[in-house]
Amino acid sequence: MKYTKTKGNTQSSRLWFVDNLRVLLTILVIAHHAGQPYGPTGGMWLIFNPERADILGVFFATNAAFFMGLFFLISGYFVPSAYERKGAKLFLQDRFLRLGIPIVFFALLVFPPVFYFAQSSELSFIQFFFRVYLGQGQIQVGHLWFLVHLLFYGICYVLWRKITKKTITLKPEQQKIAVPKHSLILTYLVALAIVTFITRIQYPVDTWKSLLWIIPAEIAHLPQYLSLFVIGIIAYYHDWFRRMPTQRGLIWLGISLGAVLLRYGYALTANHLFLNRLIAGGSWNWRYAGLLLSSTWEATICVGLCIGLLVLFREQVNRQGKCWQILSANAYTVYIIHILVIIPIQFLFAPLSIAPLLKFLVITFVGIPLCFLISHYIRKLPFARVVL
């Protein structure tokens, strides 16, 4: 992860804080999936636990509000530098190698047997694979939908550069003007909340569609993902990650944490079900009001944590010792393989009669180091580092 230095810049060209933040986000992804059988979620999961810990619902909602959006922001930030360094041809080759190979591997070798045994089909596996999985277009990429999006967005970026023949160079004084102020940040927050609200009238959370027949997308979060990827590209040219004022970032971090605490407080109060019933059973106006409220809450979390965590890590964790180096080097591989570690552990815990929240905690704290350990040895395999 490098950026081109501007004249007079004496700071390191390595954004260690971004690498470290990506480790945190990867850990949150593991924890998010570790809790899927044990909390209220609208998604599908291979393990079903009859008892649920309601408090995990807020954990899921908070994660979903920002962590994949922040992944897209960071990914967009490093697209221009990779393109400038490699050129269009090598850039696309690298994208298809690092993103395409894991997608194809999981789609054709990992997920077919998983879904075959999950569906208890009377067909043989070969028949299921060709007639149903491939023949009926039931190809699955699971959590690697993120890589599919990055691959597609990367192709779009190359096409944009080719069509516009864009060559972008900014002088330092232009960069200083470009750092977003509170008013611009708030404008984006409101716009994101409104677009999200309108989108979710037709496409509720956990409603997945195939865009262009091959790109799995949860439409409810698409405005966030697309806009943050584009903002990441803009942020690169204006050097926003390093130049965002510390106080401004910490203010937005405080706003977002306040919104998170309000949501947890609401979930823990005895009367919170009243509002849920009122919105669910009331008029369309009440339902729209609830949807607009949740969209605004999510946009506040998203914007605040995307800005705040970047600034916090920049100021406090902008260095790497041996531990951070190992974690950072394995974060991408861990993201790819973590469900192959988490789901077997969940199967082992399935027959145990213990509280769902305890299952979640144990699986999370066992699964995280195990994922990084397995990733460490996977990356030692021949040719593995070419992709991972």
Describe the structure.
The chain has 388 residues and is mainly alpha-helical. The chain has a domain at 54-319. Helices cover 73% and strands 2% of the residues. It contains 15 helices and two strands. The chain has helices spanning 16-34, 56-77, 79-119, 125-134, 145-164, 172-178, 182-202, 222-238, 240-243, 246-268, 272-281, 284-316, 322-349, 356-378, 384-387; strands at residues 208-211, 215-218. A two-stranded antiparallel ribbon has the order 1-2. A hairpin with a 3-residue loop joins strand 1 (208-211) and strand 2. The longest helix has 41 residues, at 79-119. The radius of gyration is 22 Å and the shape is globular. It starts with 15 loop residues before the first helix and ends with a helix. The relative contact order is 0.15. The model is unreliable at 1-12 and 278-282 (pLDDT under 50).
The helix-and-strand class reads mainly alpha
Write down the overall mean pLDDT: 88
Residue runs with pLDDT of under 50 for 5 or more positions:
1-12, 278-282
Relative helix content: over 70%
Strand-residue proportion: under 5%
Can you count the helices?
Answer: 15
Per-chain topology:
Elements: H1 16-34, H2 56-77, H3 79-119, H4 125-134, H5 145-164, H6 172-178, H7 182-202, E1 208-211, E2 215-218, H8 222-238, H9 240-243, H10 246-268, H11 272-281, H12 284-316, H13 322-349, H14 356-378, H15 384-387
Antiparallel strand pairs: 1-2
Helix pairs in contact: 1-2, 1-12, 1-13, 1-14, 2-8, 2-12, 3-5, 7-8, 7-12, 10-12, 11-12, 13-14
Summed up:
The protein is mainly α and 388 residues long. The protein has helices at residues 16-34, 56-77, 79-119, 125-134, 145-164, 172-178, 182-202, 222-238, 240-243, 246-268, 272-281, 284-316, 322-349, 356-378, 384-387; strands spanning 208-211, 215-218.
